[in-house]
Amino acid sequence: MTSGCEFSVVHNADLGHTDPMAVLPKGAQAEMKSGSVAFRLPKRAVE
């Protein structure tokens, strides 16, 4: 379904309406490494 697309898909993560909840600001840049559990925001998303 996403073959040939230039975006990543995150699944099985505590994002959105879950407990505990991780909030990602809209438009924030994020980095993730495929094959590992690494996910980070390289810059501060909020002041």
Written overview of the protein:
The chain is globular and about 35 Å long. Strand 1 and strand 2 form a beta hairpin. It has no helices and 2 strands. It has strands at 31-32, 39-40. It is 0% helix and 9% strand. It has one domain (1-42). It has 47 residues and is mostly loops. This is Peptidase U61. InterPro entries: Carboxypeptidase_A_C_sf.
Entry keywords:
Carboxypeptidase_A_C_sf, single chain, globular, Peptidase U61
Estimate what percentage of residues fall within beta strands.
5-15%
Q: What's the tally of helices?
A: 0
Instruction: Let me know the average pLDDT.
Output: 77
Poorly predicted runs are none
Radius of gyration: 12 Å
The largest sheet is: 2 strands, antiparallel
Distance between the termini: 37 Å
N-to-C order of helices and strands: EE
Tally of structural domains: 1
Oligomer: single chain
Protein name: Peptidase U61
InterPro entries: Carboxypeptidase_A_C_sf
Organism: Geobacillus thermocatenulatus
